[in-house]
Automatic annotation (TrEMBL):
Protein name, as recorded: Deoxyribose-phosphate aldolase
Taxonomic lineage from the root: Bacteria, Fusobacteriati, Fusobacteriota, Fusobacteriia, Fusobacteriales
GO molecular function, one term: deoxyribose-phosphate aldolase activity
Subcellular location(s) per record: Cytoplasm
Function: Catalyzes a reversible aldol reaction between acetaldehyde and D-glyceraldehyde 3-phosphate to generate 2-deoxy-D-ribose 5-phosphate.
Cellular component per GO, a single term: cytoplasm
Transmembrane segments: none
Family that this chain belongs to: Belongs to the DeoC/FbaB aldolase family. DeoC type 1 subfamily.
Source organism of this protein record: Haliovirga abyssi
GO annotation terms (biological process): 2-deoxyribose 1-phosphate catabolic process; carbohydrate catabolic process; deoxyribonucleotide catabolic process
Pfam families: DeoC
Amino acid sequence: MNVAKYIDHTLLKAVATTDEIKKLCSEAKEYGFYSVCVNSGNVELSKKELEGSDVKVCSVIGFPLGAMTKESKIFEAKDAVAKGAEEIDMVLNIGLLKSGENEKVYEEIKEIKEAIGDKVLKVIIETCYLTEDEKRTASELTVKAKADFIKTSTGFGNSGANFEDVKLMLDIAGDKAFVKAAGGVRDFETAKKYIEMGVMRLGTSSGIKILNGEKVGEGEY
């Protein structure tokens, strides 16, 4: 099992420097990660650094709160794609979801997917803030809106992926979407178990430690 090919090598902290983004891209090429996952302001640099490799550029949008207007998220997504992003990880509007405004949540996901066309859209539902019913609803709306992935977490909430949530998401996704587990993937065995469950992507800033069999400390994404 080539675990590296499931990993989005991630650096999303506010203080990430240009040199750190360059290092992220260099590591992604060296270890054969599927993509680098960066804030939209780092897409252009990442694309340049990864030129000539098969590592993709993934940009988060509406990150990390998801509380921006639909129009601002659409603009950010289109801009990131124009600058070289091949995948978009959006945070859905958690407040709207918890208010029962399901149609607005659905429309936002649908319109962002339409705006980026054939580029991959992953929807971060931020499971740590949701009830079981809300997790189910968020996953169902994501599939209905024809997004490509349901994703567990930003890594900035109070917890990340767990096996129970991932199983729920996989059951709802069925053959219509994929699942990305992010946040809390801290060792090789956990990564391997998620992949065996059917997860198609893992989001982590600790991919190198995971591949090297090292234990990742608490608090690391």
